[in-house]
Amino acid sequence: MKNLLIISILSILVISCTAKAQSVPQETQGQSGEQAAMQSAQPTAEITFTFTRQSGSASNQYAVWIEDVQGQYIKTLYATQWTARGGYSRRPTSIPLWVERSNLANKSSAQVDAVSGATPRTGTVTYTWDGTDSNGVVVPIEEYILILEATLRWENQVYVRAPLYLGYAAPAKMIVEYISGDRDTRAERAMISDIRVYVLR
User: Fold this and answer.
1) How many CB atoms are located within 10 Å of the residue 200 CB?
2) Number of helices (H) and strands (E), helices first, in the chain?
3) DSSP, residue by residue, 29-48
4) For residue 23, what pLDDT is reported?
5) From the CA atom positions of the chain, what is the Rg in Å?
6) Pairing state between β 73-80 and 116-117
7) Which of 128, 166, 130 is CA-nearest to residue 145?
8) Calculated CA dihedral for residues 35, 169, 195, 101, nearest 10 degrees
9) For the chain, what is the mean pLDDT?
10) CA triple 111-161-49, angle to 5 deg
11) pLDDT, tens digit, for every residue of 172-186?
C-alpha cells in the first residue's frame, strides 16, 4: 500500500513537470521573446514624391538609399534599372553617388535585380524602408540618413538628404541640393517635386 502511494505521488510530479515544460514559450532562433518582440516592432521610414518623366535622353534616373550618420551604406530602397544594370558604365554621370556608395560594380545580378526596377510613369511614388540592412538584418534604433539622388539631365543632379531618428514618428526635415553643369535647365528640376519623408513609427 505504501509503495502504491509513492508511485502515485511520483506520477503526479512527472505530469506536473511535463505540463510546465510545455507551457514555456520557445525562443525564436536563439533569441528571447523580448528580443523577438523588439525586432518585430522596428520603426520604418518612407519617402514620397512626384516623379515627372522627362523627354529625351540622359535623364529620368534616380536612386533612394539609407546610410548611417558616418556615411556608411546600409541599404538601397530603389534604383532605376537602366543605371543599375550597367548604364552607369556608359554614362558615368548617371546617379554617380549611389553607384559609388552601393559598391554597384561588385554586386551580383540577383542583388541588382532585388533593388532596381523600370523607370516609373509620371505620378506619385513611395518607397519604404523596413529598418533592415542589405542583408535583411534589423539595424539598431539610431539616427540614419535617407538619400535621394536624381540625374535630371546629363551632369545635372539633385540630392535630397533627410535625417531619420528611428523611434520618433514624425515628418523628417530635408536638405535639397542641386548640382548643375554646363547644360543647366531649371525646368528639369520638376522631375522630382513635392518630396516628403516620414519616420512611421
Assistant:
1) 13
2) 6, 10
3) TTB-HHHHHHHHT---EEEE
4) 36
5) 26
6) parallel
7) 166
8) -30
9) 83
10) 80
11) 999 999 998 766 667
Report helix, strand or coil for 99: helix
pTM score: 0.79
Q: What is the pLDDT of residues 81-126, one digit of tens each?
A: 999 999 999 999 999 999 999 999 999 999 999 999 999 999 999 9
Give the closest residue to 155 by CA, choosing from 184, 177, 175: 184
Going by DSSP bridges, is the β-strand pair 73-80/143-153 parallel, antiparallel, or unpaired? unpaired
Residue 31 has, within 13 A of its CA and on its CB side, a CA count of 10
One-letter amino acid for residue 97 of the chain:
L
- The residue extents of the domains of the chain are 42-199
Which residues lie closer than 8 Å to 114 by C-beta, 6 or more apart? Answer: none
- pLDDT at position 167 is 85
Find the distance separating the first CA and the last CA of the chain, reported in whole Å: 66
User: What are the residues whose beta carbons fall under 8 Å from the beta carbon of 106, sequence distance 6 or more?
Assistant: none
CA 138, CA 64: separation in Å to the nearest integer? 19
Please tell me the distance from the alpha carbon of residue 92 to that of residue 14, in angstroms, as a whole number: 72
